């Protein structure tokens, strides 16, 4: 009899990669909670945008339920700091300082170097339009940069570079794992595209459809992930992609946060119990 996915993952050195996805950190937190309850403890975590938040919380020392509890503490006032949108760094309606303060309160450690496992997060470097994978320095600034949705948040300066949300160009930071000899298996918690929401076209509006802001079309961003998954497999690594439907929410529907978290948790538990590699939404990056 074929072993369950959970049983196989427990025998491997697993990296977990969390994709970008507007307010998808609740879903990712549920997925991670399920993994940890099955004694699957990542040796490496990485994420972009919403995924960077969950990666940072785990890397800094919080476990499954602690991460869920921490995220449920966050209210709109913890990141909703409107300001005059034009600054030397660039345009953005939200300063991001309140998000930084919330992260400082929630994260047990504030630098990449003191995390319990390697943590990497995807950002978009404004100077040359490149996707960059950050893995050193200030954990708080890294998360803020990775979450700085273009034109909504102020871009973030780290050293002498200006960064925006990594999901602007690349959904999941996978490329750096290709040559990582410490990682045998990669589990990708992948946010389904917004155009797949409930099988219906996305509603128009600033917070329900921000794809018009990105300079990289959604299909091209997914293709980047597909190429990275192919390279990982060519290097002999096993890759599992979990991309089920999710509960969609935004800054004005945080009352659904617990539901979104529970949904991610239940879908991940179902996936871990399966005895084959056909996971929900796995064809998304095939």
Give an overview in words.
There is one protein chain. The protein is globular, with a radius of gyration of 17 Å. Helix content is 32%, strand content 16%. By secondary structure, it is of the alpha/beta class. Strands 1, 2, 4, 5, 7, 8, 9 and 10 form an eight-stranded mixed beta sheet that branches. Strands 3-6 form a two-stranded parallel sheet. It has eight helices and ten strands.
Q: What does the overall shape look like?
A: globular
Could you tell me the number of beta strands? 10
**Main β sheet profile:** 8 strands, mixed
Beta-strand content? 15-25%
Which class do the helix and strand fractions yield?
alpha/beta
Helix content: 25-40%
Radius of gyration, whole Å? 17 Å
The rounded distance between the terminal residues' Cα atoms is 26 Å
| Order of SSEs | HEHEHHEHEEHEEEEHEH
Discrete helix count: 8
- The overall pLDDT average reads 90
Enumerate the spans where pLDDT stays under 50 for 5 or more consecutive residues: 201-214
Any chance you could write out the topology, listing elements then pairs?
Layout: H1 5-10, E1 14-18, H2 25-37, E2 44-48, H3 50-59, H4 64-73, E3 92-94, H5 97-106, E4 119-125, E5 130-134, H6 139-146, E6 151-153, E7 156-158, E8 161-165, E9 185-189, H7 218-234, E10 238-242, H8 257-273
Parallel strand pairs: 1-2, 1-9, 2-4, 3-6, 9-10
Antiparallel strand pairs: 4-5, 4-8, 7-8
Helix pairs in contact: 2-3, 2-4, 2-8, 3-6, 5-6
